[in-house]
Specification:
Blueprint: H1 2-22, E1 28-31, E2 46-49, H2 53-58, E3 64-66, H3 72-75, E4 86-89, H4 93-105, E5 111-114, H5 122-131
Parallel strand pairs: 1-5, 2-3, 2-4, 4-5
Length: 135
Amino acid sequence: MLVIAGGILSAAAVCGYLLRLVWPVSGLTFVEAGALCGFGVPPQTKKLDVRDAFDYEECHLDGTINISLGRLPFVWSKELSPGDPVLILTDNRYAAMKAARILRRRGFQQLYALRGEVCRVRAAMNLCMEKKPAC
């Protein structure tokens, strides 16, 4: 009987975890690559790259802040404040949602996440720089 109860609890925990992965984060808006140039986001938006340092060094966008997802709960206050609008950059939708949950718990209201992989939007970044030099 104890084994069955343990199995049910384990299954419930796994279902809860999977549900949390796909559950929407209130206040998080997914945006297209044009947001890197200020289209669709407030002008003072900070760009937060939550990928690991290795991935960030391999391919990153100028003007971004790199705080890996594992360190975000502990060091966010060095670079960000809850009044800042934040654009989250990552290659993984679920990592963006996790970062948004962390920031929401700390009082952030305006959260945006880039749709797509960071390195792939570089081409879009180059196009918008041609159209908008202040980008």
